[in-house]
Specification:
Radius of gyration: 19 Å
CATH architecture of the largest domain: Alpha-Beta Complex
Largest sheet: 6 strands, parallel
Structural class: alpha/beta
Number of strands: 11
Strand content: 15-25%
CATH superfamily of the largest domain: inorganic pyrophosphatase (n-terminal core)
Helix content: 25-40%
Number of helices: 11
Strand order of the largest sheet: 3-2-1-4-5-6
Length: about 300
């Protein structure tokens, strides 16, 4: 039986690229694997795959009866709806350990680094498998994306070392310029609906029994959102009500200024305010130095719901 390698719902570049890089590795060590995805590609990910000559992984949302090696998550809220009817044979992830459980032993590669593909690189080294140039290229781009070109507080020396090694393999010397090209593409919002933008990089969370949703958009200039913020705020509230959420947030990150404006829709905004010891003005706040949802938002907001 083939193993499906697949990332989380609303896949980002790390989720897609790790499904491909992990799938290739498993096939090389004699474990038949098929890369898959749970949703549409975002513009940045499409750019990465086009640049290195890849087709998108298989679109698949049902995994009942299948073996699954999951990448870039371990939270049930990001898994296929029928995850309990699948057999999870492995996890590769760089987030906190989530709430998925298994009935049989499994292979786990979970590390406190900036990107899942940094861990996949470690797996290639462990198995002594040579990384093809095109695989190296997408892995490198995923790490640059997740670490915000090394600016994110989630970035580690292992991420930086991995990018340098992968850049040599794929033959791209100026990986910083490529990273900026990727984020420029991320900044292009023309013709995209407000709800689609909110959900472009959106994750649901169960915070001690309370439903919370957090999206993030990373751009090179926050001015692209100047005419959208009121619409974002209005649709965040609609999203909150539609999905029975306590709180819905949208993180608007300026990678050049290295900070984020957080838009908040909540049934009780005081919880968000206490979590960060701030006061929201018109349901938003600028947070200098905030680049990471994983490291600078979740660890503070989740305990506030205890």
């Amino acid at each position: 039986m083939a193993i499906y390698t697949c990332g989380h719902t609303t896949p980002d570049s790390d989720s897609i690229c790790s499904a491909l890089s992990l799938g290739y590795l498993l096939n090389q060590i004699g474990r038949e694997a098929i890369p898959a995805r749970q949703g549409a590609l975002n513009p940045e990910t499409q750019f990465i795959l086009d640049k290195f000559g890849f087709e998108a992984p298989l679109l698949k949302t049902k995994f009942a009866g299948c073996e699954l090696f999951i990448a870039d998550y371990s939270d049930r809220g990001l898994a296929p709806a029928d995850i309990d009817e699948a057999t999870i044979v492995g996890i590769v992830d760089h987030h906190k350990l989530g709430d998925l459980t298994t009935s049989a032993p499994l292979e786990c590669w979970i590390r406190p680094v900036g990107c899942s593909n940094t861990i996949v690189k470690e797996m290639y080294d462990y198995h002594k498998v040579e990384i093809p140039a095109n695989i190296a290229g997408i892995m490198m781009c995923a790490i640059l994306s997740d670490t915000v070109i090394f600016k994110s507080p989630t970035c580690t020396q292992k991420d930086i070392d991995a990018v340098r090694e992968l850049s040599e393999i794929c033959g791209i010397e100026d990986f910083g310029a490529l990273g900026m090209e990727m984020f420029t593409i991320k900044s292009q919002m023309d013709g995209v609906g407000i709800r689609d933008l909110i959900l472009r990089d959106y994750k649901p969370f169960d915070m001690h029994g309370t439903a919370v949703g957090i999206g993030q958009l990373e751009v090179v200039d926050l001015a692209v959102f100047d005419t959208m913020k009121d619409d974002f705020q209005e649709d965040l509230e609609k999203l909150r009500i539609e999905n029975n959420l306590h709180t819905a947030c949208l993180i608007l990150t300026d990678i050049m200024k290295e900070g984020s404006e957080i838009l908040v829709a909540s049934s009780d905004k005081s919880i968000f305010e206490k979590a960060f010891d701030i006061t929201l003005e018109n349901n938003k706040i600028w947070m200098p130095g905030c680049l990471s949802r994983k490291k600078q938002i979740i660890p503070f907001l989740e305990p506030a719901f205890k």
